[in-house]
Write a structure and sequence with these properties.
With about 270 residues, this protein is mostly beta strands. It has a single domain (about 15-40, about 55-60, about 70-125, about 130-245), classed as Jelly Rolls (Sandwich), CATH 2.60.120. It is built from two helices and 21 strands. The chain has helices at about 195-200, 215-220, and strands at about 10-15, 20, 30-35, 40-45, 55-65, 75-80, 85-90, 95-100, 105-110, 125-130, 135-140, 140-145, 155, 160-165, 165-170, 175, 180-190, 220-225, 240, 245-255, 260. Strands 2, 3, 5, 10, 11, 12, 13, 17, 18 and 21 form a ten-stranded mixed β-sheet that branches. Strands 1, 4, 6, 7, 8, 9, 14, 19 and 20 form a nine-stranded antiparallel β-sheet that branches. A two-stranded antiparallel ribbon has the order 15-16. Strand 11 (about 135-140) and strand 12 (about 140-145) form a beta hairpin. The radius of gyration is 17 Å and the shape is globular. Mean pLDDT is about 85; it is low at about 1-25.
């Protein structure tokens, strides 16, 4: 069973800006460093309308972990439904293990030799795919398996609200917040094929192998790369899709905590 850290708070708020840390002459930040105090939610059309996923989708996150103390599982991605929830945690004691929970029940643990969540400079690609009512999960280009022969398939036909970096309890208070770096978030309104997942893992900065893949590129609903010019004096906590579509990633921050823009990236 996972250990759950319940953060007892009665007040948390939007940041008007986030801290900016510059350590060299590089021109751009590359990621957001969240350290147990921040998480991302998503909105569309206005900053008050929750982005809800009903049909097929693929949610991708380029992320890293970091060395931390404590025995609490931290959550990298959470799918909050009206009647269901799916959460992906880092095992607090094994630095290369992910744990998958469906409606609070542990359904799979996976260890991957090439992963070390204690090393913050190592970035990994998490892909969550919904095809009709079946959800599958990849870490890099490794499909998470149920057993040696069958992939892990989570049946879910709920309307889903995606969250990166925490779970939310029944009172919408955050729990099990992630420690590490969020380099890029991508949201597609289609279930990506495994060959596309493999391509993204092999070429981390590319969306497609060719501009001729119009159907694929047109299915990209949201992209947030956090590549921000260091000359900016103040940066809001609301990140609009890089193509200026009305889709937003908003970083929330616990009171007394902070998040930082960082040059560290994949």
């Amino acid at each position: 069973m996972k250990n759950i850290l319940i953060i007892l708070i009665t007040n948390f708020f939007f940041l008007s800006c986030i801290d900016m840390i510059k350590s060299s002459d590089e021109e751009f930040y590359e990621s957001v460093h969240i350290q147990g105090g921040g998480w991302f939610e998503f909105y569309e059309n206005s900053e008050n309308e929750n982005l809800e996923l009903i049909d097929d989708f693929t949610l991708q996150v380029w992320f890293s972990g970091q060395a931390e103390t404590g025995d609490e599982a931290t959550c990298i991605a959470y799918l909050k439904g009206n009647l269901s929830n799916i959460a992906i945690y880092r095992n607090p004691n094994i630095n290369n293990m992910l744990m998958i929970y469906d409606n609070e029940d542990l359904i799979q643990e996976i260890e991957i030799e090439s992963i070390n969540f204690n090393e913050q400079e190592n970035f990994y690609l998490l892909s969550i795919i919904k095809n009709q009512n079946e959800i599958t999960i990849y870490i890099n280009d490794n499909l998470i398996m149920q057993d040696d022969a069958n992939p892990l398939v989570i049946i879910n036909d709920d309307t889903i609200k995606p969250i990166i970096g925490t779970t939310l309890n029944a009172n919408n208070a955050p729990e099990n917040l992630w420690y590490g770096y969020i380099d890029e978030i991508r949201l597609w309104n289609t279930a990506l094929h495994d060959t596309t997942i493999s391509f993204h893992n092999q070429y981390p900065t590319k969306l497609s192998s060719s501009y001729k893949e119009e159907d694929l590129l047109s299915s990209l609903h949201g992209l947030w790369d956090f590549r921000i010019d260091m000359s900016e004096e103040s940066i809001d906590n609301v990140f609009q899709n890089v193509d200026d579509n009305l889709v937003y990633a908003i970083i929330y921050t616990l009171e007394s905590m902070s998040n930082e823009l960082s040059e560290l990236g994949r």
